[in-house]
Amino acid sequence: MEEIKIFAPASVANVSCGFDVLGFCLDPVGDVMHVSKTKTPGVQIGTVTGQELPKDPLKNVASVAVSAFLEAHPSKEGFRIDIDKRIKPGSGIGSSAASAAGAVFAVNELLGAPYTRAELVQFAMAGEALASGAAHADNLAPVLLGGFTLVRCNATLDIIKLPTPPDLVATVIHPKIELKTIHSRAILKSDIPLQKGVAQWGNLGAFISALYTENYELLSRSMQDEVIEPLRAMLIPKFNEVKQAALDSGALGSGISGSGPSIFALSRGRETAKKVGDAMKTFYDQIGLDYDVHLSPINQQGIKIL
Amino acid sequence: MEEIKIFAPASVANVSCGFDVLGFCLDPVGDVMHVSKTKTPGVQIGTVTGQELPKDPLKNVASVAVSAFLEAHPSKEGFRIDIDKRIKPGSGIGSSAASAAGAVFAVNELLGAPYTRAELVQFAMAGEALASGAAHADNLAPVLLGGFTLVRCNATLDIIKLPTPPDLVATVIHPKIELKTIHSRAILKSDIPLQKGVAQWGNLGAFISALYTENYELLSRSMQDEVIEPLRAMLIPKFNEVKQAALDSGALGSGISGSGPSIFALSRGRETAKKVGDAMKTFYDQIGLDYDVHLSPINQQGIKIL
Asked: Which of A20, A195, A198 sits opposite B198 (nearest CB)?
């Protein structure tokens, strides 16, 4: 294979109760990447459309991830990456993860797939590190594996694919302010109260049980974040109002998507998810802040070849 | 029914990665309680064998729990509780939980079972509060419901029964020093590092996934406690050596049972669990500290009528 075109989806990390460990994959939103072999070794960034991205291979998330891949798996050929960047960087739905995972996935395919999707996470981490200062796999894992994923241990990349209750539909609203992960991490405190930690792991445990048992009521009760959300809410205009509107419209739960500013909700069925999106956006209409709203089933497949 | 005899089992709380939320029920170890109706209302403690327990109904865990039950569900009859206390108080395997849960279970049966097992937790909490200062349901839930249980929220008693992989066998060693829950709680710090919290909820999430998928390797990897065990280990003689010996003998994981001093291990199969127990006890033989060792499958039923 000389060239490949892939779709690298957006994703939602943290999911209220799972800071730095839990994530799920979105469906219609994502980047399109075209990767082709070149005669000269190394990685180059070709055309970039949709968003402005660095062309310097040392500063672009996609090429940095591919370089990490090629260090482990050297190739005499080089690679050119053309990116139609449809996920806005800094929107909180895994922009850098899509770039990094998409690029290594494509190169892996072009080289006859020496690595599994799970194994590719380690290389994509280099791209995430460039984007956010500290590399976490909570967006990469769902982008590569699809569905819901849990990163048991970020250091050893012990990643578990979790089941998805069939009726779940995500709503994501992106108020168009830019929030760098590096800044929304800076606002966190290095210590948390033990009691809030207990509440958090009780909720995450229950959330995971709810995924296995398709218990939507339990899923709803467990979508609480007492640790991170109270600190980050202030970075997102009208966060509390938007979240409350989502819950009042029937969402099972709602919270900050990744490090924000996007806000996500999970609902049972597309109709509720649509209603939730309509309710969420009214607050940004009122203050004249531009936004995007996405409705999405949980993407079971992750990155796909187009 | 005028009288009832029940078996109230011991239990292991925390289970390494689930401080204050996770627990499982043991099988051969437990108290035998005989509860009979009396003509005068109220609760009285009759004979107590096996251990010394307060006879004053206001100071005995079993009668305090029954009083909480009778406040919600008044009865013209009274109850006399005879206890063969086989679980040593302060051993870390849910002695007070067995007394409290056993007593309310028995009285509930004698009154035609107006409450489900799950509903009885709220009354048994009064007994736990007497014993340990702060009431937690992480021992009560497995004693009443059997198997593994998760307390999502201690305030609302949102309790989930979890599945048990069929090959799991517990080993519990009780070095005979007494450690009051109230004291082993005092050693904890009110804050924990966020990074250790993340590790803890990643491990608990993975542990729960492992229960549903019967993945013993994942169960083993997730039995880590970076939050509580490092603080409490010093309260238990030879803890680190005993734990390491359990792991070296093939245990999937090992840690402090509840607030100690008992140390538990989970193994795959009875043969390994036996080997683990033999390895654990050598350290107490060396220093001449008396101990008990229990081998136990996971008790799926919880309290049972004899």
From this structure: A20
